[in-house]
């Protein structure tokens, strides 16, 4: 992955962590879609990033219940 992609992933992860810790789920779907999009564009890391996407999605799904 290139440096801009790594920075983008770092921003996505940071935003997801903040939202999880503050239990703020508003707009989280858009951020998760950014992570999924990054996973789809990264063939070398796609399995790892898809798994990460699923973990985050499940966390927020459980939080919303």
Structure description:
The chain has 65 residues and is mainly alpha-helical. Helices cover 82% and strands 0% of the residues. The relative contact order is 0.16.
Mean pLDDT score, rounded?
Answer: 91
Distance between the termini: 35 Å
Number of helices: 3
Q: Which runs of at least 5 residues are low in confidence (pLDDT < 50)?
A: none
- Helix fraction, binned, reads over 70%
Choose one word for the global shape: globular
Q: Give, in order, the helices and strands.
A: HHH
Structural class by helix and strand composition:
mainly alpha
Q: What fraction strand?
A: under 5%
Q: Outline the biggest β-sheet.
A: none
Output the radius of gyration.
Answer: 12 Å
Count every beta strand, where a strand is a DSSP E run of 2 or more residues.
Answer: 0
